[in-house]
Structures are given as C-alpha cells and as structure tokens.
Amino acid sequence: MKKNLLPSHLMGLIGITVFLLTACEKEDHVVFDTFNNDSKSRNLIVTFSDLHLGADISYAEINANLEPLKNFLEQIRVSRSVKELVIAGDFLDEWFVPATTDTYNGNGQSDFVNRIATTNNEVIDKFNQIIQEGKILVTYVPGNHDMTITEENVDLILPGINQSRDAKGLGTYSPFGYPEIAIEHGHRYNILCAPDPISNQDIAAGTILPAGYFFTRLAVQHVIQGCTHNLDATPIVTPNATGETSQALLYGYWYSWAGWLNKFPIDNHFDEKLIVTNIDEFTDTLSVNDLLPYQNTPGGEIQVKLYNGIQDTWADRCEYNHVAIPISAGEAFKNAASTSGTDTMAVIQYFSNPNSNKKLVVFGHSHGANIKAYENYSGQKVIYANSGTWIDHNLNGTTTMNFIVITPQNNSADSQTYVTLYNFENEVVTEMAKDSLRL
C-alpha cells in the first residue's frame, strides 16, 4: 500500500484549506448570482413581458422557449432576494390565432384560458408555486394580446395573483413602496393596439378590440400557410383630392393595411369570409375587404366598413384609456409599427409631463429590449427600460428571453437604484445593459 508522504498535521491543514476555498467559492456563487445579492432582505423587482402563451402549441409564438421559461421561473422561486415578479402584459394570447380558427372552439373565454393552462402546464404550475409559497408577490398587468381576458379568468388559472388594472384592457403598476416606478405594457398609446370602445359598436356592442387584432389574425394565417404572394392584389387607394385632414389620416390607415398585407400575404381572396370571430362581442365571419379602406374613384372619398371613423375618434379613445398627454392621430399612426415610437411614449407621457413623478418606466409590447437614460422636465436623470419578449423567434431580429431586474437603493445618501437588462438564451443569464439613478 502506498504510504502517505505528508505528515498527518499537514494533510489536515490542506483538507481544511480545500474545504474553506470550496465553501468560499460556493458562497461567492450564491452572493453574486443574478437573483441573490448580499442584501439582508428581499428587495429585487424582476419584470418581464410578452410571453405570448397560446392554447394551441402548433401555432403559438412560444414553444421551444417554454422549457427555459420554466427553468427561469424556478430560479426566481428559489431566490432569497427577489421580492416581486411583474408580468407586464401579453401573457395569455388571444390574438395570435389563424384567421380561420374559432379562438374559443365554440366555448367561452374561461375554457380558452384553461386550455392555455393545460398547453403550458409546467410554466403555469411554476407560476402557481411561486404565488402559493407567498415569498414573492406576482403581479400581472394586461397587454394588448390579453386585453379582453377578464380578471376572473386570469385568477381562474392563477389564484391569488395580484392584478393591476386602471381601465378596461389596461393597467399600470408601481411596486409597493416605489411610487416613482411605472410598469405598463405600452399599448395604451398605439392607435392600432389600444382598447377601442368606440368603433364597431353597431355590430359588436361592448367590444374593445382594436384594428391590430385583425392585423394579427391575418398575419398568423400567413404563417400557417407559408404564402409568399397575396392571392389578390391589394386595391390601390390614392390621397383624397380635397386634402381634408380626416381623409388624409384614413389614407394613412389604408397605407398601414397595404403594408401589412404585403408583408404577410395570404392565400385567400380578399372578399372571402375567412376571419372567424366569436370573441369580445363579434360574431360575424369577416373578409379582408370588410377591414380594408377602399375608394370608388381615384382621388375620391376613402371609405371603410369596420373601424369607420378610426381616424377621428382617437382623441376620445385617449381620454377613455387615461392617456395623460394626448397625442394626435397622425402621430399615433406614424408610431403604430415603430419600436422607437413605443419607447418615445415613455418620454412624452412620463418624463416630459410635469404632473408625473415617475423616474423609472418599464414597457413591453415592442419586443425591443433596451435601456435608455433621459432627463425629465426638471433636469433629473430618469430611465426607460423595455423588457423585450420570450417568443421563440423575435421578428425584430434581436434577442428573446429578456427580463429586467430592478435593485432598489438603500438608505445611504450615495446609494443608487440599478436597472439591469438580462437575456436568458441557452439558459445562461447574460447582462445586456445596465444603468442607475437615484429615486
């Protein structure tokens, strides 16, 4: 048998040293982990959005990322430092459904929400585990893709979840003890995505579904068909010869539709009744022509069937939707499909607004994860962050599986609140951007 060449007391010292080094390594790993810091109490606020959980995995926007999402939530659950988890909208997806599919399968919304829970059971179970353990407050804020899902039906699959709503289909949340922080989805300011309680009341009394809902249904039809060219050519509309403002705006609305149909062509005639509704008071099966602005003669009056007057009612929608600083319909159309347009709304609605006390604003909606610093109306540093998305393929060409961690300042005079944007792709936490300010 090989003899030990070191004296026993030296062997003991080496053993103790190895043990201490190993313990230090383990402790360092815990202390500097993303979800665990050296605070003596829970203080981290984690925000993410745009999960887009669907009822049918065959066309849902999130499928491959479900397993990483479940594992991400487990890291949140076992954290000793996370205080709040905020879901900033587009959580349960009623919009990303093929045009020819009956969203509710002939049943009601509660059945649809239960199907989402079944399809995504491991993720929903993990949310429920976090909620039921009671160590982390989980808050949900509505987005546009889940704007009509009721509070009761969210609670049906996530009993005990905190919900922040301030108008039908909308919500803004300030974490407990931090009134200077505002978290909302960001669709409130988008003319194609904000709740619309004015249009189409003659055929769907009580509906709030905006035009973007139908844009999305047709885009999903394109996805499942894999179509490269529209079966029909998009009818041409020209600017109204009178130059009247309302008609000019309606021309802009047509331009949005034409661009969308060219980007997401479908293998259906535009007069075909293909868009199955049976949702939010709509019952008719609709065609593209029911939605597309048209013109009987070049330069003549531009008309539209559904969303008739959309260009003229935007100011009323802003009031209904509690938009602090109303924006013109022209600006709203211009910004509707723009990531930067969404980001700019944080500046207009909060940082340049003398009636706002918000210094940190977090949106989702655009899927464009980023952090930007500004100065507010009084010259103070403020921060806007976008929490990105968790869908499998981000059409923006940027990352997916994004989240924001807010680390609040402590009581010392020089302490800062840190805002960090992370990515969880390949189940590795990667820091994308970071900034700080004093709340």
Description:
- There is one protein chain.
- By secondary structure, the chain is an alpha/beta fold.
- The protein has 2 domains: 42-186 and 339-437, Purple Acid Phosphatase, chain A, domain 2; 211-303, no CATH class.
- The protein is built from 10 helices and 14 strands.
- The strands form 3 sheets. The protein has a 7-stranded mixed β-sheet, with helices on one face. The chain has a 5-stranded mixed β-sheet with strand order 5-6-9-11-10, with helices on one face.
- The model is unreliable at 1-32 (pLDDT under 50).
Provide the low-confidence segments as ranges.
1-32
Number of strands: 14
Strand content: 5-15%
- What is the name of the CATH topology of the largest domain? Purple Acid Phosphatase, chain A, domain 2
- CATH fourth-tier homologous superfamily of the largest domain: Metallo-dependent phosphatases
CATH architecture of the largest domain: 4-Layer Sandwich
Spatial arrangement of strands, main beta sheet = 4-3-2-1-12-13-14
User: Biggest β-sheet: count, sense, barrel?
Assistant: 7 strands, mixed
Top-tier CATH class of the largest domain? Alpha Beta
Amount of helix = 25-40%
Number of helices: 10
Q: Can you give the mean pLDDT?
A: 92
Give the overall shape, derived from the CA principal axes. globular
Tally of domains: 2
Along the chain, the helix and strand elements come as HEHEHHEHEEEHHEEHHHEEEEEE
Give the CA-CA distance, first to last residue.
Answer: 68 Å
* Secondary-structure class: alpha/beta
Q: Round the Cα radius of gyration to an integer and report it.
A: 25 Å
